Amino acid sequence: MPSEQSPPATFITTPEHLAQALGIPVEPLQAVHAVYPLRVSRYYLDLIRQHGLPLWRQAIPDPRELTDSVGLTDPLDEENLSPVPCLVHKYPDRALFLVAGECAMYCRFCTRKRKVGTPDMIIDDATIAAGLDYLSRTPAISDVLVSGGDPFMLPLARLERILKALRAIPSIATIRIGTRVPCTLPMRVTSGLAAMLKKYHPLYINTHFNHPTEITAEAELACARLADAGIPLGCQTVLLRGVNDSPEIIRELLYRLLRIRVKPYYLFQADLTKGTDHFRTTVDTGLAIMRHLIGHVSGMAVPTYALDAPGGGGKIPLTPAYIRRLDDTLDFTTYLGHDCSYPNRIDL
Ligand SMILES: *Cc1c(COP(=O)(O)O)cnc(C)c1O
Ligand code: SF4
User: Fold this and answer.
1) For a substitution probing ligand 2, which of 57, 116, 279 has the most ligand atoms within 8 Å of its CB?
2) Region class of 261: left (phi > 0), else alpha (psi between -120 and 50), else beta
3) Which of 177, 184, 239, 318 would bridge with 105, disulfide CB 3.0–4.6 Å?
4) Is pLDDT of 165 > 90?
């Protein structure tokens, strides 16, 4: 009789399995795992094997996570901006609703690494009910960002219940979902998921790719299913040292995103999150990358480079300085570095 073998698990979640899979020592992984969670999908592990360091660094625990000097536990002051647990109300007209505590991968640079994937982020029916209640008694909020953790890790029926409840609140106009699943576990974006989402328009999805080698045939299929359901797709990339901090890598990423029907939305300066020092670039690096992009690549491909203000001040766009003088004459520099001016008056 053929032996019954269970299929390989979708995820690796222990230092022992990961050390074995990659042929590396287990002790450093164990030390980091004692503080932060670990999860890598088999799919992403294969990508790491093919493409190496830029993907490795995003997924594999690094002892530097434990020897951090400047990081903040909650860099965006989200806990203080939460009127109820797991709902961040920072801007008057929109709110960030954390509906899932788990992700398909625990990114080492995650801003919420203090709680994502840990017992501090167990989101139950009561948490969801409290969030929905706050949204229904706060009609100023018209745009809800459903995030986590990763909403696409929820059972389909549970995610649908949440979307249906949001749609039952008349003051909510648009729903956005933030998910990294199209990048880290694209096969989870089934046609059933897309068909369910389609019922809750206007719905937008912002996904999260950081490197061109993450744009695979599987990711393309996941994004096609969502786009074919009429969902506009954006991407929130994080600028990460040793992963994507060069104009060539970012340009290739942006073009590949457009090809899979994803419009680059934000390029984030890395937050001051505890345990992520080794990922941070200077802002100058980001501005230099933007200078290489603006005017040189399709405007459709250019995201807004933004810094999320420490302490919860909101997102600050960072743009290279093209303007040299702004009074009744505007003096500026073109993308090719030429001087130019424009009469900034209407009484000529
Ligand atoms: C980023 C963010 C938003 C949405 O900001 P947009 O610029 O509209 O994309 C809303 N609430 C919180 C708490 C956020 O961090
Ligand atoms: S998928 Fe997003 S929320 Fe989850 S660990 Fe990665 S960055 Fe954090």
Assistant:
1) 116
2) left
3) 184
4) yes
Q: Is the CB of 106 under 6 A from ligand 2?
A: yes
β-sheet with 87-91: strand ranges across: 87-91, 94-100, 143-148, 174-178, 203-207, 233-238, 262-268, 304-309, 314-317
Nearest residue CA, atom 12 of ligand 1? 96
Mean pLDDT of the chain: 96
Q: Ligand 2 in contact with 180 (CB < 6 A)?
A: yes
pLDDT, tens only, 203-218: 999 999 999 999 999 9
Amino acid found at 216:
T
Residue (of 142, 148, 133) closest to 92 by Cα position: 142
Domain residue spans of the chain:
11-66, 79-317, 320-348
Give CA separation, 300 vs 219, 257, 296, in Å.
20, 10, 11
User: CATH topology for 79-317?
Assistant: TIM Barrel (3.20.20)
pLDDT, tens digit (0-9, with 9 covering 90-100), for 302-314: 999 999 999 999 9
